[in-house]
Amino acid sequence: MAHWLVKSEPNAYSFDDLVRDGGTVWDGVRNNAAALHLKAMKVGEEVLFYHSQEGKAVVGLAKVARTAFPDKSDPTGRFVAVELKPVRPLKKEVTLADMKAEPKLAGMEMLRQSRLSVSPVSDEQWKTILKMAGG
DNA sequence: GCCAACGTTGGC
DNA sequence: GCCAACGTTGGC
Hints:
Elements: E1 3-8, H1 15-21, E2 24-26, H2 32-40, E3 46-51, E4 57-70, E5 80-95, H3 96-101, H4 109-112, E6 118-121, H5 123-132
Parallel strand pairs: 1-3
Antiparallel strand pairs: 1-6, 2-5, 3-4, 4-5
The structure holds a DNA duplex.
C-alpha cells in the first residue's frame, strides 16, 4: 500500500472541516505532478493531512475513499479529483521543523519540492512520522 | 521549440 | 512582506 501527503491551507479547508464533513472531494489540483499522484491513489490508502501556511504541520490521517475521476471544477478537463475521508487526528502534530530536523525524512518529496500539493510518502517515512506523532 | 516574463505557492 | 522555487504563457 502506498502512502501520501496532501496539503491544505486550514483557512480554506482544515482537517477539522474534513472530520465535520465526514469526507470530501479533493479537487482544485492544477499541477501535473500532483495530478499524477492523485491518479496513482487506490481506495483505502492512507494520507497524511498537512496544514500549510497557518500551522505548517501534519495534523491528521485520512484515507482514499474514491480513486481519481475528472475534476468538475476544471474547465479544461485535464485534471482529476479523488475523495478523501477522515481517519483520526494525530495525537501530536508533526511540524515542518520537526520533519526537517529528522534525518530519516531528508528525502521526502514534500520537503524537496515545497510547492507540491500532493506527494508520495515512503513506508519508512510514514512509520517515522507516525512515531513522531505519538503512535 | 526556446526562453524571458509573469503568476502562484509557501516558508521565513 | 519578501523571496525562492517552479509552472505557465506568449513572443520570436
